[in-house]
Amino acid sequence: RCMSRLLSAVESELQAGREKGDPTERGLQVTLEDAELWRKFQQITNEMIVTKNGRRMFPVLKVSVSGLDPSSMYSFLLDFMPADGCRWKFVNGEWVPAGRAEVRNEGRSPGGIYIHPDSPNFGAHWMKAAVTFNRVKLTNKVNGEGQIMLNSLHKYQPHLHIVCVGSQHRLVSNVSFVETQFIAVTAYQNDEITALKIKYNPFAKAFLDAKDRNPGRPGLAE
Amino acid sequence: RCMSRLLSAVESELQAGREKGDPTERGLQVTLEDAELWRKFQQITNEMIVTKNGRRMFPVLKVSVSGLDPSSMYSFLLDFMPADGCRWKFVNGEWVPAGRAEVRNEGRSPGGIYIHPDSPNFGAHWMKAAVTFNRVKLTNKVNGEGQIMLNSLHKYQPHLHIVCVGSQHRLVSNVSFVETQFIAVTAYQNDEITALKIKYNPFAKAFLDAKDRNPGRPGLAE
DNA sequence: ATCTTTCCCACCTAGGTGTGAACC
DNA sequence: ATGGTTCACACCTAGGTGGGAAAG
Q1: Which of B58, B105, B194, B201 is within CB 3.0–4.6 Å of B110 for a Cys-Cys bond?
Q2: Which residues contact A220 (CB under 8 A, 6 or more apart)?
Q3: What's the rounded Cα separation, in Å, for the pair B188 and B194?
């Protein structure tokens, strides 16, 4: 809704802000957490489920931030940009392009923008611990607010925006990590992805074999 | 910690702020939600459990707010003031004074201050839905941050503070509701209180009789 | 003895998983 | 027939209840 307009309006100020040499976020640094885990999924092409009511992401997008002005107020936003112009298809154990992407929406942030629930908050708050986007939900239907709508079988890359909110809004950072690319699906296509999700997501523990669940007692399980 | 000093410093500005005639919160109104439920407990003297790791309140303190400046930034704080100078005792089915209160702390907010997790946020955020303090936890031990420490068998009344955070902090509201008075206990004293808690708190549903759980099907239960 | 606190417990609420059959 | 989506489900995580025995 209006957040989308806000973001594009504010984005044009990024360059201007830098030219003015605003000193408050001179040494800003944003680091992706759990990068090793993300890369495990990335290596075999990550997939994220989309459902009518919205599905959480796993792995969870988590960043540690430093270099903000502790006493200034910021909001953290997330959007999902198409990674290419393709629709994808999983055949014979690999993902191959299958026609042009469906373009649902011309603006920048086709699926909507997720506002981190801690927003707005002081720089000190965002820096005291990693910022976790575990509550963002991906959907393939038009839904109530707070969910991200994506096209199934299309590839996306999450983008993080840090906005300084004050008398004048100002985009402070606009970063993205290739490790977090994924293809939206309504059901997992690659069995190896399913296996990784089950292995690392605690909520999927029901599907772990008994032997995997008692790694320290190899003789007892089974 | 520093929040306590902030509050007392800011409080002295309340009168000054009013004299300046700051117009932003002219028609401020704060209403207690679920007041009927609170009064059911108040009538027989409410009790709240305190534990080492902290116990939630039931009923939950919930207020609806109007009259804030939608685009100004506010924080919502809660503290618990001694309602009298007594220590209380439950004998023969009623609460009677039993000696003078133990005074653990001379300042105003002896048990600490709870900051609503949505803080800080815009006036529009606080007004779009009732503000719920369901996550506040009461304890009788010195603990990590975010919990309120109370003396068992002492009577308290919660106080809500709304602070406008900006270049200059300013206390906007300071309200309290007698309906929300309670005596802190480590175990319920009055069986009628226990019965009310079980009847209305969904988390205590395990202790509801079968007949109470199927009110619409009187013939089926039992 | 009495009063108060602590601890473990069974039983809930609330909601996040992939499965597999059904559906389109 | 094929490929993609939906749904109910069992099984988890995570954590909020008062009970009751035990401890202080």
Answers
A1: B105
A2: A214
A3: 6
> What is chain A's pLDDT, residue by residue, as a tens digit (222 residues)?
333 333 333 333 333 333 444 547 779 999 999 999 999 999 999 999 999 999 999 999 999 999 999 999 999 999 999 999 999 999 999 999 999 998 765 556 778 999 999 999 999 999 999 999 999 999 999 987 789 999 999 999 999 999 999 878 888 899 999 999 999 999 999 999 999 999 999 999 999 865 555 444 333 332
* Per-residue burial over A31-47, b = 16 or more CB atoms within 10 Å of its CB, e = otherwise: ebbeeeebebbbebbbb
Chain A contact for B72, CB < 8 A?
A: no
CA distances (Å), origin B121, targets A74, B73, B92, B207: 11, 5, 48, 39
- Dihedral sign, CA of B49, B54, B60, B61? positive
Distance A204 CA to D9 C1' (A): 14
How far is residue A30's CA from residue A176's CA, in Å, rounded to a whole number?
A: 10
Maximal CA-CA distance, chain A: 66
| Residues in A 90-149 with any Cβ partner in B closer than 8 A | 120-122
φ and ψ at residue A207, rounded to 5 degrees: -100, 5
Establish whether the CB of B208 is closer than 7 Å to any nucleic acid atom in strand C. no
Q: What secondary structure does DSSP assign to B60-105, as a single string?
A: PPEEEEE-S-TTSEEEEEEEEEESSSEEEEEETTEEEEEEEPP---
B121 contacts A122? CB cut-off 8 A: no
Kindly state the tokens that stand for A125. Answer: 């708050």
Beta bridge partners of A162: A76, A173
Interchain pair A121, B120: CB under 8 A: yes
Which DSSP symbol is given to B197? Answer: H
Cα distance between residue B186 and residue B138, in whole Å = 10
Among B1, B17, B60, B6, smallest CA distance to B173 is for B17
Quick check: A3 contacting B, CB < 8 Å?
Answer: no
Q: What is the DSSP letter of B25?
A: T
Query: Is the minimum distance from the CB of A142 to strand D below 7 Å?
Result: no
Mutation target among B115, B121, B145 for the A interface, most CBs of A within 10 A: B121
Within 8 A by CB and 6+ apart from B91, the residues are none
Q: Which two tokens stand for residue B83?
A: 């309602």
Find residue B122's DSSP bridge partners.
B73
Distance A214 CA to C17 C1' (A): 19
